[in-house]
Amino acid sequence: MNIINLTKENRLDLLESLLKRSPNQYSEYEKTVAEIVENVRRNKDEALLAYTEKFDHIALTPETMRVTEEEIEEAYREVDPKLLDVIRKALVNIRSYHEKQKRYSWFDSKENGILLGQKITPLQKVGVYVPGGKAVYPSSVLMNVVPAKVAGVGQIVMTTPCRGGKVSPNTLVAANEAGVDVIFKVGGAQAIAALAHGTETIPKADKIVGPGNIFVALAKKAVYGFTGIDSIAGPSEIMVLADETANPRYVAADLLSQAEHDELASAILVTTSKTLAEAVSKEIDGFLETLSRADIIAKSLDNYGYILIVDSLQEGINAVDEIAPEHLEIVTSNPFDVMTRVHNAGAIFLGPYSSEPLGDYFAGPNHILPTNGTARFFSPLSVDDFVKKSSVIYYSEEALRAVHKEIESFAQAEELTAHANSIAVRFEEED
């Protein structure tokens, strides 16, 4: 990896380079995605199955599109028992963490017959998209489904592409353990369109969550408004903020853990130590000789890998806030203090033994995180994403009588006479 002294002059170039990874920069695909979405909206199962055969080379019918109980039972026979044990332990951690996020309805009773409140209502039907093309991510199944279950969602519908007509056993087992209600063997933009608009076989979802490739991301963007979405996710990214106390071998390994996702993934080290920077670069070269996805990692590092040297820790924190990384590791002499000064990050990992994959698989916090700088205003997927909040207002006749003149005058000031009249008619005999 190239080692760069971060300056005011090259800071903007770095940010511009990273933003090129955003799905918003791939407008050349939007027309194709829009055509797929519209075709599925109009022709439903017919279009969905045609695209599945065209892109995934699988001939399905409405009957075979749905995963059967027999297929799930077969998946349990094929999954490594050790993996199943890990999935179940991870589920305990993930549920426990998300249970603490639950919100409850509240009501505040005031004098003179006034009741104000907020009613929490779970979404009725949620669609979960799970990738299944180049890679399979049962961990993403857990992270998408558990907060929905904790929130009390009525039905969880999962779609995932399959290879040779068969969904990955690991994915099926993870879905069954997490509590998915129904699974369909379709993927890509066409699956997002089916969840957004509904077909004869796939029900329309109130919200769609889950990561995917560029076509999936753009499809979610296209259907937003017809249904809710979690976010338009971009490629994965990690940033490590470190000082001279960090272990260079640990830092190098953690950077590569995200660079292996795909060629667009970003891995950045920001450090106050030139010695650490050089040591990390050397460790990375050594790891690349042994890792199975070295070709992908090398392309990722060439395009979006940086080792940035800063003059002070505060300057490093400023760089973090500007980039707003999906994953941030703080490996300094006092990471807890540094954390309090960071404003923008999706997930924060503190200290040398809180490696990013710990969050991907096991610790409990959600690994569906804001990317491409959106951590400036977005949060990780949570129970909040699967509930709606309705405000509740009750005024008795006596309570409204006490304030009706004020409300009428406010409406008249805005020249909304029908608003004013709606209040006034209730007391016209008194006036």
Instruction: Determine the N-to-C terminus distance.
Output: 80 Å
Instruction: List the total number of helices.
Output: 17
The percent of residues in helical segments reads 40-55%
CATH architecture of the largest domain: 3-Layer(aba) Sandwich
**Residue-averaged pLDDT:** 93
Q: What is the number of strand segments?
A: 14
Output the structural class: alpha/beta
Largest beta-sheet details: 6 strands, parallel
Strand order of the largest sheet: 1-11-10-9-12-13
Q: Write down the overall geometry.
A: globular
| Gyration radius, rounded | 25 Å
CATH class categorisation of the largest domain? Alpha Beta
Could you list the spans in which at least 5 consecutive residues all have pLDDT below 50?
A: none
Beta-strand percentage?
A: 15-25%
Offer a concise description of the structure:
The protein has helices spanning 8-19, 30-43, 45-56, 69-78, 81-99, 138-151, 169-178, 188-197, 214-223, 248-259, 274-288, 294-304, 313-323, 335-341, 356-361, 397-413, 417-424, and strands at residues 3-5, 106-110, 114-122, 125-129, 155-159, 182-184, 207-209, 228-229, 237-242, 266-271, 305-309, 327-331, 347-350, 387-395. It is of the alpha/beta class. The model has no long low-confidence stretch (mean pLDDT 93).
